[in-house]
Design goal:
It holds the Pfam family Hexose_dehydrat. This is Oxidase EvaA. The chain is of the alpha+beta class. It has a domain of about 180 residues: Nucleoside Triphosphate Pyrophosphohydrolase (Alpha-Beta Complex). The protein has eleven helices and 25 strands. Strand 16 and strand 17 form a beta hairpin. The longest helix has 13 residues. The two termini are about 20 Å apart.
């Protein structure tokens, strides 16, 4: 699963997977999504206002989210401090996946349009909604299947945990990640479809098809439903499956991984405080957008949305538009016959508990072009210069389309060569997929990018419950 250029149509035609009927449904949903997203000046966003004192950009209802400012100091990196805009969304959203058992496990997914999606419609979990949305602040229709998650039948919950989101772009953002087993028949509504877990995993190998919210819930599912360790004939897939096994030998004890991360958190390597958007240094705003003075990092733009497939027929909102495509990668290697991943203690100013465990590499390379070579992210070259035979997963995946505009990352799993040390720098540890999955039973231990790659690894293991 390394073909990042694979298209849905080519995949369905050339290989016959996933199920051709699934692709027909997905393409029909995309064609039926007669939506338009038009960039408009920030000053013309319907329902939004700029605070005359702070300069913060917020919804007139006081709900949804606010674009505010952040002052950051003391992370020990190449830049000792900075200021930036950031999205503040204190309410807790709901990401829920409904599952049922047939010949194998099936998942109820939806083809959901988000204004920031590269291709308009992507595969989303059963429920993907902010609290403002599912309490109908917008005055529109209700959220389908919501009752399965806000009032789950006793014994039906498979996974339920609060998880963080992008700490560079969100201030303390959390979503409730839930997997619930259906009790009784649950019919498909328009834009929804029951698909096998294996088909959903296969979709993880295609560019910009499975959205971020589905990936994070899949990672939480991987924490409770580990892949079979029966031999598949694919040496790397078998290695991945053993990495998820509770009997697999990890180079670090679970308690030692937790102790290392707790010690780093105790040092408080970063201090971030909210400030007014109007006072943020190094950024400028005109009536159209908010931009970095040097043209790096991201912009805040405004969009107007018209659609026939959402709870309301139209709305306006700000979106964060990143510059360039990011690189998100785990370096992997077998140690003692068990797959290990090189995880990094990831320091991001918007995380509630700093740091969280993330991938080996998480960056947008062009943001480092102005810095000396010594300040490039560690192991970035080991990822970007890896020969094709060492790349085990390579796919371009979108981030949250409800808040970010065309935010893409190239996600990779790369087999490490001998130049990558077995004893890594202090901010890194070799951990097994099982250890990451174990941490996902708890909040704020693994970044959203790390969860996406864990879901990708889970899909590589080949066999499902």
């Amino acid at each position: 699963m390394t073909g990042a250029a694979t298209t849905p149509a080519a995949s369905a035609t050339a290989t016959g997977w996933p199920d051709a009927g699934l692709w027909q449904w997905y393409e029909e949903r995309r064609r039926a999504s007669t939506s338009t997203v038009t960039q408009v000046p920030l000053d013309e966003l319907r329902g939004w206002r700029t605070d005359p004192v702070t300069g913060d950009l917020g919804h007139r209802s006081g709900q949804f989210f606010t674009v505010t400012g952040l002052d950051v100091r003391g992370d020990g990196g190449p830049v000792p401090g900075w200021q930036q805009p950031i999205i503040s969304q204190p309410e807790i959203g709901l990401l829920g996946l409904l599952v049922r058992r047939r010949a194998g496990l099936e998942c109820l997914v939806q083809a959901k349009m988000e204004p920031g999606n590269v291709n308009g419609v992507q595969i989303s979990p059963t429920v993907q909604a902010t609290r403002s949305n599912y309490t109908r602040v917008h005055g529109g229709t209700g959220t389908p299947y919501l009752e399965h998650f806000v009032r789950p039948v006793r014994g039906s919950v498979v996974a339920d945990v609060l998880q963080s989101e992008q700490g560079s772009w969100f201030l303390g953002k959390r979503n409730r990640n839930m997997v619930v087993e259906a009790v009784g028949p649950v019919p498909e509504q328009e834009n929804f479809r029951w698909i096998t877990l294996r088909d959903l995993q296969l979709l993880m190998g295609l560019d910009n098809v499975v959205n971020m919210d589905t990936r994070t819930v899949l990672a939480c599912l991987a924490a409770v439903l580990r892949p079979s360790t029966r031999p598949t004939g694919d040496a790397f897939a078998d290695l991945v499956a053993r990495g998820f096994s509770p009997t697999g030998g990890a180079v670090e004890r679970d308690v030692d991984v937790l102790s290392w991360l707790t010690a780093l958190r105790s040092r408080r390597p970063l201090v971030a405080r909210r400030i007014g958007l109007a006072t943020v240094r190094g950024w400028h705003r005109d009536r159209h957008a908010i931009d970095h003075d040097a043209g790096r990092h991201f912009s805040i733009i405004g969009v107007d949305v018209r659609t026939a497939v959402r709870e309301v027929p139209g709305w306006s909102q700000p979106l964060l538009r990143p510059r360039g495509r990011g690189v998100v990668a785990f370096l992997a290697r077998p140690i003692g016959g068990v797959l290990h991943l090189l995880a990094r203690a990831c320091v991001q100013p918007g995380l509630r508990d700093v740091p969280e465990l993330g991938p080996t590499v998480l960056c947008r390379p062009e943001n480092y072009a102005h810095l000396p070579a010594a300040h490039r992210p560690p192991f970035l070259d080991a990822v970007l210069c890896a020969p094709p035979e060492r790349i085990r997963y390579d796919c371009v995946l979108s981030e949250e389309g409800g808040r970010f505009h065309h935010a893409e990352n190239r996600y990779l799993v790369v087999e490490a060569d001998e130049r990558v040390p077995v004893r890594p720098p202090e901010d890194f540890r070799w951990v097994t997929p099982r250890q990451l999955a174990m941490l996902l039973a708890h909040s704020h231990y693994v970044t959203v990018e790390g969860r996406s790659l864990l879901a990708a690894l889970y899909s590589l293991a080949g066999s499902c419950p």
